[in-house]
Specification:
Elements (H helix, E strand, L loop, with lengths): L3 E18 L2 E15 L4 E6 L9 H10 L6 H7 L4 H18 L3 H4 L8 E2 L2 E3 L4 H9 L6 E5 L5 H11 L4 E5 L6 H13 L2 E5 L9 H4 L6 E3 L6 H4 L8 E5 H4 L2 H13 L3 E5 L5 H4 L2 H5 L4 E3 L16 E2 L2 E2 L9
């Protein structure tokens, strides 16, 4: 294999407005960018977001990338580094590099003949019912909304947003904030609000009650599902799985995870962290097979990366080669 050189750095993107979930508030997106170049001048890029929920930090991710001593190819990387943000950034950079070396698009390397536009959800931060209803009404051109929930009072939040946007499609993301006692009444409230999907209502590792109750609304695993090895055990509790490149540790593992979910009869959602278009672009390959897409990170930034994804009325166009792949 020709010599390949890896560099990594961190970048910061201020958000257009604070982003609030049940675990805290973000005002900016800190990302890790990997670049891999070859002797012929080809360069591939990948971007990832270390997630504190899983014990990841910017410093730790940079250290893990710099400590990697294996071959800079995807099979070696997959076998030599654990899933997570560090592996994701390297893996996506390798996809980008290989596409440029072969003068093909990354989706072709993944076995697809083309990419179609996909509709992304737009996230409404956790807030009071009135504030969330106002935020929903402020984006009438967006037809798929994702509500960040927080537990107590979520029935009022759901009802308020549905009243403000009677014809929108809604997804609700509890980020592990519900309790066993809240599960059934809030599931009923979600059904009344005509919610398409509820993400991770109960904490990972404490979600056994999802197997006990009827699902008035489909339930999607997020924090309970990281890599392919997690998928089969989800079938008795969940109806869908949220595949994120940062959790899976790259597009390579995410494609394996997609195939495993399909074998298990689980629906697929493709999600991402808050980051630039460089992080979202590889996930558009997965999104071709997903029922729900949540790749609105670039819409939440005050300013995106150069040559960023074109997103019109919630519909994401395939990435330009100048961006990725």
């Amino acid at each position: 294999m020709p010599s390949r050189q890896l560099t990594c750095r961190t970048e910061r993107y201020p958000l257009a407005q604070p982003f609030v979930i049940s675990r805290g508030v973000k005002t900016h997106a800190d990302v890790v960018v990997v670049e891999i170049s070859d002797a012929d001048g080809n360069r591939g890029r990948g971007e990832s977001v270390p997630y504190a929920r899983y014990g990841e930090t910017i410093a730790g991710t940079l250290a893990a990338i710099n400590a990697y001593q294996g071959s800079l190819d995807r099979p070696a990387l997959h076998n030599g580094m654990a899933a997570g943000a560090a592996r994701n950034a390297i893996d996506c950079a390798l996809w980008d590099l290989e596409a440029r070396q072969q003068k093909r698009r990354a989706y072709e390397l993944a076995g697809l003949t083309s990419l179609s536009p996909v509709e992304t959800a737009y996230t409404l931060s956790l807030d009071t019912p009135g504030a969330m209803a106002k935020a929903a009404a402020a984006v009438p051109h967006l037809q798929l909304l994702k509500l960040k929930l927080g537990g107590q009072g979520d029935d009022e939040r759901l009802a308020a947003v549905r009243s403000a946007r009677p014809n929108a499609r809604l997804i609700a993301d509890a980020n592990e904030a519900w309790t066993d006692a809240l599960l059934e009444p809030l599931m009923a409230a979600a059904a009344t609000a005509r919610v398409d999907l509820i993400e991770q209502p109960l904490p990972a590792g404490a979600d056994a009650d999802l197997a006990r109750i009827a699902h008035a609304v489909p339930v999607c695993a997020d924090e309970s599902a990281h890599t392919t090895k997690d998928v089969a055990a989800l079938r008795d509790r969940y109806d869908a799985v949220n595949i994120k490149l940062d959790k899976a540790g790259g597009l390579t593992e995410a494609l394996h995870m997609l195939a495993a979910a399909q074998r298990c009869g689980l629906e697929v959602m493709v999600g991402s962290m808050v980051a630039s278009s460089l992080a979202a672009a590889p996930a558009l390959i997965l999104a071709q097979s997903a029922r729900w897409v949540d790749l609105d990170g670039p819409l939440l930034l005050a300013e995106d990366i150069a040559n960023g994804l074109v997103i019109r009325d919630g519909w994401i166009e395939p990435p330009a080669p100048e961006l990725w792949g």
